[in-house]
Every structure is written in structure tokens, then in C-alpha cells.
Amino acid sequence: MAEPKGLLIIERILRDRDGVWRQIADDHRLKSLSGQMLGASALALACYGAVLGASNGWLQALSSAVKLPLLFLVTMLICLPTLYLFNLVFGARLSIRQALALVSTAITVIAMLSLAFAPISLFFLITAPHYNFYKVLNVTILALTGLVGLRFLIGGMRSLNRFTQAQALAAPPAAPTPAAETEPATTDESAEQPEHSYYTRPQPTARSANIGLLYVWVIVFGFVGTQMAWTLRPFLGSPEEPFEIFRTIEGNFYVDVVKTIGRLLGAG
């Protein structure tokens, strides 16, 4: 069966995720797979970015349609070397192509979920055009889709570990040496049993280390992404300020979100 292209790649990810993880584990046609996922993600994020910017005119919509895909692309490029080096340090066999495909899968899920929320965001923009509410709503949507996408990434890493372990167990064992065949059975069993136990016990520890470092990387990805979003703002555009492509870097993303919630609740 031919692989789906364009936006249909999300259907394959959701319906045949094990097949996607196995393709990544086998390092098979990952350039094509990553290209499809990044292309679909850019288009979906551009559509959602246009909805974000529509709250402040067509110029802001056009600007946000360009900046939102750029946000995820730059964040991925900044954090991808860290993921690759983490895997090398902890002894994983993840190539740079596999790391790129793995992260691209998570970004595709985030992009498509964001696109699915676009009609809801647009509905509230039309029926309840309140700037602070609209900002909190879309920050919540992006945070929710980001969590789902990153959980998808962790699930993918677990699947890659499972496939790698299965391939290692399926590998043919080394042929015994002639000297070992001539030894008595009691001596051979007593010598081989500790060796078998020695070589199989470290595997769960290695898998746990891989997942543990992935959790650390997810936190790093989140912080880099939020700071990058703050750097590339505005995405919505305040109705009280003129249109700007970028604003002066000042303040903090988290402080601004708290202040926005306070203003929305009438506390500030």
C-alpha cells in the first residue's frame, strides 16, 4: 500500500502508529517520512496561526501564519542536537535521522490537534471578542496540544526501545567454541548461567535511562518553546497597539500569562 502524503500523514500516524515507529526503528525512508510530516505540520500551523492573528486584522493573521510554523521549526532545530547527544551519552543507537523523525512525529500531532481546535477558537473570536479571554483560550489550546504531542513522543521512544530489544533477542547467538563443547555438562551450565544473567539484566536499566533523559528533554523543549514564542510575539496582537511584526524583548512569558488571567478575572 502506498504511503499517504501531505496532510494524510496524520491519519497514518494515528491509525498505524506501530508501523510508523517500526519504520523509524528500521531507519527506512525517513527522509521522505520527515519531509511529509514537517510539510503537513507547517501547513496546519499556518492555518491555526492565521486564526490566532485574525483577532487583530489581516496583517496580524498573515504574520502569525508565518511565525507559528517558524516557532516550532526553530525550537526543534535548537533542541534536536540535545536529544541526539543525550542518546549517545546513554548508549542509545538513535541516529540523527531517527531523532528528527521522532520529533517530527510529535510536532505533527501538535499541529493537527491545533488545527482541529481552530474552529473552536474562531467561534469564540466571533461570538465573544475579548482579547484577554482569547489569549488565555489559545494558550490553553497550545499547552494541551503540546502535552499530547510530547506524550506521543515518549510513547514513540518506548516503542523504539521495544523494537530494538526484540531485534536484539531475535539475533542468532554466537556459535559455541570447540573447547566449550568438550567440557562436562555440569561445568558448562554453571559457567553459562551467570553469563546469561549478566548480559540480560542491564537492558531494563538502559531503557529506563533512555526514557528518563527523554523526560528531561521534554522539559527543555517546553522551556525553549515558550521562550521562543515570547521572542516571536505578537501572535494575537493587542487591539490597543499598532500592528508590529516583532516586539521588544522584555518581561517573561509566564508572568504575562498570569497577568492576563488576572486581568480576565478582574484582579488587575
TrEMBL record:
UniProt region (Disordered), positions on chain: 173-203
Key words, A-Z: Membrane, Transmembrane, Transmembrane helix
Biased composition (Low complexity): 173-187
Superkingdom field: Bacteria
Annotated TM spans: 38-58, 70-90, 102-127, 133-154, 211-230
Name of the protein in its database record: Actin-binding WH2 domain-containing protein
